[in-house]
Amino acid sequence: MPNTYGNRTLTEWLTLVLGVVIVLVGLFFVIGGAQLAMLGGSVYYLICGVVLVASGVFMVLGRTLGAFLYLGALAYTWVWSLWEVGFSPVDLLPRDFGPTLLGILVVLTIPVLRRLETRRTLRGAI
Amino acid sequence: MRRSHLLATAACVTLACAPLAANAQFAPAGSGGSPTASVPGPGNADEPTATTPASTSRFSGPSPYAPQAAGVNAANLPDIGSMDPNDVPQMVPQQSAAPAQGDWSAYGRDDSQTRYSPLSEITPQNADQLKVAFVYHTGSYPRPGQTNKWAAETTPIKVGDGLYMCSAQNDIMKLDPATGKEIWRHNINEKYEAIPYTAACKGVTYFTSSQVPEGQPCHNRILEGTLDMRLIAVDAATGNLCEGFGHGGQVNLMQGMGESVPGFVSMTTPPPVVNGVVVVNHEVLDGQRRWAPSGVIRGYDAESGKFLWAWDVNNPNDHSQPTGNNHYSRGTPNSWAAMTGDNALGLVYVPTGNSASDYYSALRSPEENKVSSAVVALDVKTGAPRWVFQTAHKDVWDYDIGSQATLMDMPGPDGQPVPALIMPTKRGQTFVLDRRDGKPILPVEERPAPSPGVIPGDPRAPTQPWSTGMPALRVPDLKETDMWGMSPLDQLFCRIKFRRANYTGEFTVPSVDKPWIEYPGYNGGSDWGSMSYDPQSGILIANWNITPMYDQLVTRKKADALGLMPIDDPNYKPGGGGAEGNGAMDGTPYGIVVTPFWNQYTGMMCNRPPYGMITAIDMKHGQKVLWQHPLGTARANGPWGLPTGLPWEIGTPNNGGSVVTAGGLVFIGAATDNQIRAIDEHTGKVVWSAVLPGGGQANPMTYEANGHQYVAIMAGGHHFMMTPVSDQLVVYALPDHKG
């Protein structure tokens, strides 16, 4: 039986932690976003939250798809925020700064996730 | 604004400092003066009924007919007699009528309260060389065990060889204006218990007697109204009490007020003297009970301290002092802002507040409804109103007027100057009125407002006045997309908070089933800092706030559960009432919870910055905005109350006003970044700033001594603005090149 979690390197652990963080953020988005949508507010948080939860789960599972889902959510975030407030730095700050910072970390995990996937494929082949 | 603002933002983002950058304002936690964190939220809809059991532990208020208990006030002075207003001696011309070039003779420098000084040594070119000339310690600050209720808000006055001021607890002093050396100090031994919402003394009044000859003691006097309701007169030369005034130099202003406790009613502003009549108003602590002590306005003879007249709203035809067990009518609108005198018209302009229990209006009399949140021109001969201009009808938003009116001349239709009055308001609507009859000079429109509202038996007014001829000192109504934060997480929190509240723009009606958003908030728009006006250039300087509030009416049962008690309740905890306006409103069916519209977990405001602005309006050429930008940096503010140290001019909440000079400079503290700055009057560029030892929540002033110009500001801080409290008056000057 392939043991995905054995013999992890530091970067792999950090990737796992990042995945968990993204799941938690995603859950906050889903719960808060559902409330907001029900109150007649923006549906962005709910939609984005669903994608983030999926993204984080896949990252925890060591799947590259998780990283790409996050980058997809980030692209959606930028498009949405520019639509909502235009090129206003002070308004883009809360909407995009944190997510973009996380996005940089997510990009850094792509090689790690690839390695995990390769290892899993090799194990699967054996 | 905005270039510098945006550039700073961009720089901030690139420096990756953003998560810490942003936010200003009322930081959370801390002392008793800090704002309440949150409203009770939904599920508060149980209307009180006749069968709602009264909580047995709740204190039933004292009879309004009970006389003032002995020892209630520090003064404990005998009653003062009355005299006929016609017997008031002819007043000699006062220093404040035409101050010497280098003087600052009244709270707003002169009788017009322009806050304009003709001094010009300090200019935009040399202001960056300003250095501290001296610092004076007043000695008033919270001692261990005392709740921080301090905000001195003091503006010294300068007449001749003296700088006269008061401490936050009303001790009076004369300083050498060139060195800051104390020439005399008169301690008035005020008790801590006398402090109401805030320990503040905005200033003292300089009065020259027509009865005491020059050279004799008390020819020139310093008049002061105190937190414990005394009107005090001391000799300007020695600081000794004027024996010929009241009882040994003091008048007990509690006379005729009926039952009260220390800290319920207080004077915080310098009383104006108009044609020999010293006029006093007082603040009544907000939100305590419907039948709080009266907001009566009174006139006294400035020579003898004898009572002349009272303007008691619910006794409009009786201007005399109550006798026996009678008292002035309770719960009437109080006036806590500085009043403005007008010797030529024989008027005093009284900016009024609200009837007691600010957020529930069903128990107010028609007389009260006519004069609350208004500017009322009282005839100083009789105490009768000559005209009234109301700035908010049936106010339930705490839109009491905090600002002092500024007098100026407006060009009339026939080219003749019209005597005018500028009345700033918390709503950010600035009314320009003809001070002879109170008629608007610039257009005022009555526009439909949300009505009748949802509170049974308490309909709102169908219209409200808007000053359409003046630039509005506000931003458009809030939208969900205006919610802000460090990250999408706290932004989402604020978006939900926004959607959960009732909000239909300005004058959103109070509600009990869920919170409502109040914007403009009760901190303004314009508050007690008032405005400064340069009559030469015609430029009007206004600083203002963008600080929405999040309010909710609570049923009596809920109010009791929350521990909302009036100040005269034996179980009342000092400081426990939280923010101003948060209160029991005892005697009405509801209590009120008032909070900033903020994220109570981070202490950041929910709305996007800026939170404070400064605007220059050209009054001579069509009331256009000359320049406008955020006021205050993020250096001393941050999430969880942490200072970020960032120079980003984010625009912070501000309290305190400005000075404008012939040198072409505006001096202002006010912002919560604890800085004083000099701004080019014509361009809005900040040409100098310095960090103060405490919050600069006071109006600065400027004067000349020994041929040099000085700029003084009380860095007293402000408990509600969460800025550091100090007892320091800081005075700046250019380096002495001769030395």
TrEMBL record, chain A:
Keywords: Membrane, Transmembrane, Transmembrane helix. The keyword Transmembrane helix applies. The chain crosses the membrane at residues 12-37, 43-61, 68-85, 97-113. This is Glycerol dehydrogenase.
From TrEMBL, chain B:
It comes from the Bacteria. Pfam families: PQQ. Residues 1-24 form the signal peptide. Residues 27-104, 441-470 are annotated as: Disordered. Keywords: Oxidoreductase, Signal. Residues 49-60 have a biased composition (Polar residues). Its cofactor is pyrroloquinoline quinone. SMART domains: PQQ. InterPro entries: PQQ_b-propeller_rpt, PQQ_mDH, PQQ_rpt_dom, Quinoprotein_ADH-like_sf. Residues 104-711 form the Pyrrolo-quinoline quinone repeat domain. Belongs to the bacterial PQQ dehydrogenase family. This is Glucose dehydrogenase.
